[in-house]
Design goal:
With about 140 residues, this protein is mainly α. The chain has helices at about 10-30, 35-50, 55-60, 65-75, 100-110, 110-120, 125-140; strands at about 50-55, 80-85, 95.
């Protein structure tokens, strides 16, 4: 008889444990850049599009604005981004890369390949897994 509450049968456990270990694999690549993994995610969003509003960054990262705000503050203290009142809407704050923040992108281009090498899993398999996880995330968002 199968025990439905067996730890190793739980999707939540597999995802949480894998998440911790994969993020740990990023640390040796991110430390020389002066970034934590959550800060790296903020920078990835801004390297795609800058400036962005805090709410949009939070939305892109599937996080609450209150979680993203301190990350933005630390990145601003590090000189990688700025926060300025929007010219179009004084109530809004635009978060934009500084020259240093934009320049860091070039050094960060090595990160994905280094992580793939550390994992030792073929890139094609990782891409399929990413796509499956993205589908799972979308399904989870549809649940009220």
């Amino acid at each position: 008889m199968t025990d439905l509450l067996e730890l190793d049968r739980q999707l939540c456990f597999a995802l949480a444990a894998t998440n911790r270990e994969v993020i740990r694999m990023y640390r040796p690549s991110l430390e020389p850049l002066g970034l934590t993994h959550p800060q790296y995610l903020v920078m990835l969003a801004l390297w795609e599009e800058s400036p962005l509003r805090l709410g949009r960054i939070a939305e892109r990262l599937h996080l609450e604005p209150a979680t993203v705000s301190p990350l933005v503050g630390r990145l601003q203290e590090a000189g990688l981004l700025t926060r300025r009142r929007s010219a179009a809407d004084e109530r809004a704050v635009d978060i934009a890369l500084t020259e240093d923040g934009a320049a860091l992108r070039e050094r960060a281009t090595a990160v994905p390949g280094e992580v793939v090498d550390r994992l030792g899993v073929p890139l094609e398999r990782l891409e399929r897994l990413r796509d499956e996880l993205t589908s799972l995330l979308e399904a989870a968002h549809r649940v009220p």
